[in-house]
Amino acid sequence: MDASVQEIPERLLGWYDNHARSLPWRAPPGLPAPDPYRVWLSEVMLQQTTVAAVQAYFAKFTQRWPTVMDLAAADDADVMSAWAGLGYYARARNLLACARAIAARGGAFPDTEAELRALPGLGDYTAAAVAAIAFGRRAVVIDANVERVVARLFAIDTPLPAGRKAIRDAADHITPDDRSGDFAQAMMDLGSAICTSRSPHCLLCPLSAACRGKEAPERYPVKPAKKAKPQRGGTAFWIERDGEVWLMRRADKGMLGGMRALPDDGWNARADGNGEPPLAGEWQAAGQVEHTFTHFHLSLSLRLYSGSVHARTANDDGEWWPVTRLDEAGLPTLFAKAARLALALRRDD
DNA sequence: TAACCGTGGTG
DNA sequence: TCACCAAGGTT
After folding, report:
1. A243-253 exposure pattern, b = at least 16 Cβ within 10 A, e = fewer
2. Claim to verify: residue A65 and residue A104 sit in the same structural domain
3. GO MF annotations for this entry (predicted)?
């Protein structure tokens, strides 16, 4: 093996000792691990989500639910509302399920990767990350940063996903027995600040001497082409009475599952909505909201009910919500946009 | 295996 | 402006 490859862990940890980002869920390099609850919570929030987006949510959750026992005892609706805006809402449902599983075993997280992997919402990455960061276990932690850094270090040009086997073997090879949590976080910091996806800064990289891909780093890893996102259309409905608006609770499975929402006409990723309002009467057009999800674009028409509303609007799962407290309803971003539009229109009246 | 599942930043 | 991207997991 190339001598420079053997030096990777030491070089990277040396860089990390001086350049580690200071984050609320992280212990400074070399210091004792933070509370496993905070490590786990941050890792789940950080799945496919930027550090900048997570910061405020992490502060809110840890202030409101300081321990995993507190979180386990929370109401589902409160947790879903607190997660609103962060996206990938299955994470919040799994977060609660996991917290309750931990509470059922006394409040202590398991300290091995295999046991962690069996918990809801913890896949290969998160189980390895928590085992390494919170419990000091040696684990091969592979996220998109590590994937990119390792593919470049070893010039692995097998297209993903097939290339993941070689990437994992290489990552395993350079993961040290000691400080594997710091090593994982160092790889992620390096990927975030130096070995970035679009414009890597090889001149600043502590691993450039060992890097076989530095001549053309943007070549790695080789990714498959993305599918085009279809354009869909749908309608959301604003029904207001006595300063309250009718909100639904979406089904647990599928898009925006478990979240509060405006009633809609059944639009989804595969089909436009049918345009049918939830109750008969007079409706007025209130404009459009454009929103892009992971796999499709949506042009949402907002319609306002202009008739009188009886006590019961629909026989579905819903509730009247005070318009002045809409920011507390925990609407996902699409419906928060629609609500903003409706409120702007009201003010103009 | 591949489709599904949010959102905000960015080059 | 817009396609790409991010500390992925589930089915």
Report:
1. ebbbbbbbeee
2. yes
3. hydrolase activity, acting on glycosyl bonds
